[in-house]
Amino acid sequence: MRKEIASGIAHEVNNPITFVMAGVSHLRECLQNLTAIGIEIEGGAGIEAIRERWQVLGGVRGVEDLFETLADVEEGATRVRDVVRDMRAMNSANGRPPAMLDVNDEIRSAVRVAGAEVRQHAAIHVALASDASVLGHAGRLSQVVANLLINAGQAIATTGRLGTIQVRSWVDEDKVFTEVRDDGPGIPADSVMRVFDAFFTTKKSGNGLGLSISRKIVRFHGGELLAESVPDGGASFTIVLPRWTKDMDRRCEAGVPDAVI
Ligand code: ADP
Question: Which whole-number Å values give the CA distances from 240 to 51, 169, 218, in the listed order?
């Protein structure tokens, strides 16, 4: 896994955990107050003393707010669960037979794991088609999209300004397309064909393997990964995959071999 994705995941887990901890601490405090009220009731305290404590809690409104706190905690925990699931899928797709999957889920998963890192340099806009099913390996495809997002973010970072990344999916009769387009510096004409070569990199700390592995993964899915420079600046990478059809189920082969990854 690329270090940028690992650091993105750490960030994505850390944020909601902070949320969950704050919520739990608030809930504990309120429970302590509720327990104190219970003790007073059981000890036969007068209604005035009980009412006073109840007001400290914020009355009915205050207790109702606890449901919101609970919902926040639940949302934070769900985000952590989703990110962990994405990470697992990225690491354990090998060897499993391919299955019908929605490319949009792969895009969402990629945005979850790479989003925190990439948003330091660019806003991410996502526009998804409906009915974008393919036969493939969940996790592997999201890994490709995450790689494209990280590259787009890094390209934009070299301009020193905040940019925009558009992630789109669309379909035609027999293909599903996913495009990651950025408004960074673009790719020089003489490099467009070379970006997929193993070890081709223009980055100080790059290894030049991200796109070569990504293209292998896409080709293994019977598709193609294309690169182009956008005329008004920026780069665009498009994943083209065969659209899922019923008869594909019958020709499921083995998973993506380890050698590809
Ligand atoms: P690395 O990120 O380690 O350099 P990659 O295979 O992912 O390896 O990318 C290879 C090269 O392709 C990059 O070093 C960069 O020159 C170019 N590249 C990739 N994505 C973009 C992009 N969105 N905009 C401009 N250049 C890009």
Answer: 66, 10, 8
Residue 116's pLDDT is 85
Closest ligand 1 atom, residue 211 Cα: 6
Q: For residue 202, how far is its CA from the centre of ligand 1 (angstroms)?
A: 7
Q: What is the pLDDT of residue 137?
A: 86
Q: CB under 6 Å to ligand 1: residues?
A: 151-152, 155, 182, 184, 187, 195, 200-203, 206-212, 235
Positions of E strands within 95-151: 99-102, 122-127, 133-136
Structure tokens at 86: 């994405």
HSE-CB for 86 with a 13 A CA cutoff: 31
| The pair of three-digit structure tokens given for residue 222, joined into one six-digit string | 């019977």
Q: Which contiguous run of DSSP H or E holds residue 5? A: helix 3-42
What is the distance between the alpha carbons of residues 173 and 191, in angstroms, rounded to a whole number?
Answer: 32
Supply the Cα-derived Rg of the chain in whole angstroms. Answer: 24
| Nearest partner of 197 among 205, 206, 160, judged by Cα | 206
Cα 194 to ligand 1 centroid, rounded to whole Å: 10
Write out residues in the chain with pLDDT < 50, as ranges. 254-261
List of residues 6+ apart from 208 with CB closer than 8 A: 197, 198, 199, 200, 201
**What letters, b where the CB count within 10 A reaches 16 and e where it falls short, cover 156-179?**
bbebeeebebbbbbebeeeebbbb
Residue with CA at minimum distance from ligand 1 atom 21: 151
C-alpha to C-alpha distance for 97 and 137, rounded to whole angstroms = 8
pLDDT score recorded for residue 161: 95
d(CA 178, CA 173): 15
